């Protein structure tokens, strides 16, 4: 049994030291430092290979072999430790970041219909029950349809009732009301009887404020046939307000003027806010105007292809934004087309 050489003893001591240190290591950074100290090219273990010439010749292979064993042993332990640390790291993460599957999920944001789409559909439904069908006509109109054929000739003072957006093309304008649809419908259906609603956006060159917009919807009502009377109109419109606002609603009609009807009228509903007593919303009147109406003027009937000696009709123009404002107590018309979702999400 030969004495252990000095080098081997040194190596054994070094291995012990390395193993003891490794035991204590709990994190990846210290582990890398340990590897640099004991297994890198410049480490103490590797230095032994360079120191082989110090030993007697016959001892060298043995020492070399032993140095290799130490190196391999340390490498194996390093790998084991590395796996352990990684696993511990994973376990800790799993513990801390555990999913709580009982938490309620996040609700995805849902789109919805615009308040005026909803109100328009309700209006169509009510009139559909009374036999009126929707007839669409264009937003961009001729001056002729929007004014002249409705008994409002050029330079007629009544044109001041509608502040108009003109286009660069002479005779082409943005419609100021849905009434030009009356002429279009009559020219298409004459001499058949007509019962239509004409909905859509209208445009007026106006100062915008809480009750005025430069664009807004209207719903025009038109009935043409034989023996249609003012009483039919009154009954139809009163029935509409009942179905829209409820049985108990009170309405009244006042004479008014529109060039394309004769006689003309306006309909008011009792103010919802003050129940007719008078408040700031109704301007102290106790009533709120919701529509203009009247018997179709003979000139307009003729322009539409109906003989006013045989046919008669009534027309009305409703403001759906007005209807919503009354129903939901919206105090500023600018909310409708301002696209603020805080407003839109409420309906
Ligand atoms: N077109 C009219 C307006 O915009 C309303 C109206 C329609 C009045 C039909 C009478 C008949 O003011």
Total count of strands: 9
For the sheet with most strands, the description reads:
7 strands, mixed
In the CATH hierarchy, what is the class of the largest domain? Alpha Beta
Architecture of the largest domain in CATH?
Answer: 2-Layer Sandwich
Number of helices: 11
Q: Which compounds are bound in this model?
A: phenylalanine
Low-confidence stretches are: none
- For this structure, the CATH topology of the largest domain is BirA Bifunctional Protein, domain 2
Lateral arrangement of strands in the main beta sheet = 1-4-5-9-8-7-6
Oligomer state of the chains in this structure: single chain
User: If you compute it from the alpha carbons, what radius of gyration comes out, rounded to the nearest whole angstrom?
Assistant: 45 Å
- Name of the CATH superfamily of the largest domain: Bira Bifunctional Protein, Domain 2
- How many domain modules? 2
How much of the sequence lies in strands comes to: 15-25%
Overall body shape: rod-shaped
User: How does the helix and strand content classify structurally?
Assistant: alpha+beta
What is the helix content?
Answer: 40-55%
């Amino acid at each position: 049994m030969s004495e252990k050489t000095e080098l081997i003893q040194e190596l054994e001591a070094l291995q012990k030291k390395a193993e003891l240190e490794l035991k204590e290591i709990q994190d990846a950074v210290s582990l890398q430092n340990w590897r640099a100290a004991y297994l890198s090219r410049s480490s103490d273990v590797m230095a032994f290979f360079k120191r082989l010439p110090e030993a007697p010749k016959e001892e060298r292979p043995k020492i070399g072999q032993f140095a290799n064993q130490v190196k391999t042993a340390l490498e194996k332990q390093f790998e084991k430790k590395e796996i352990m640390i990684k696993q511990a790291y994973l376990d800790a993460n799993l513990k801390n970041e555990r999913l709580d599957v009982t938490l309620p999920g996040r609700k995805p944001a849902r789109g919805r219909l615009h308040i005026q789409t909803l109100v328009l559909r309700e209006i169509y439904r009510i009139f559909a029950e009374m036999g009126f069908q929707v007839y669409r006509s264009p937003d961009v109109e001729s001056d002729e349809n929007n004014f002249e054929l409705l008994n409002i000739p050029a330079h007629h003072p009544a044109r001041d009732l509608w502040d108009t957006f003109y286009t660069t093309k002479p005779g082409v304008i943005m419609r100021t009301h849905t009434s030009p649809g009356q002429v279009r419908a009559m020219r298409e259906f004459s001499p058949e009887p007509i019962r239509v609603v004409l909905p859509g956006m209208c445009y007026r060159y106006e100062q915008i404020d809480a009750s005025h917009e430069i664009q807004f919807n209207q719903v025009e009502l038109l009935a043409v046939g034989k023996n249609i009377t003012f009483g039919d109109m009154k009954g139809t419109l009163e029935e509409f307000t009942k179905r829209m606002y409820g049985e108990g609603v009170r309405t009244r009609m006042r004479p008014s003027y529109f060039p394309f009807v004769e006689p003309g009228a306006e309909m008011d509903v009792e103010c919802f806010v003050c129940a007719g007593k008078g408040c700031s919303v109704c301007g102290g009147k106790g009533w709120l105007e919701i529509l203009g109406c009247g018997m179709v003027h003979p000139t307009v009937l003729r322009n539409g292809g109906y003989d006013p000696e045989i046919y008669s009709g009534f027309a009305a123009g409703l403001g759906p934004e007005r209807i919503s404002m009354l129903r939901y107590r919206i105090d500023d018309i600018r909310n409708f087309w301002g696209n603020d979702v805080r407003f839109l999400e409420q309906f």
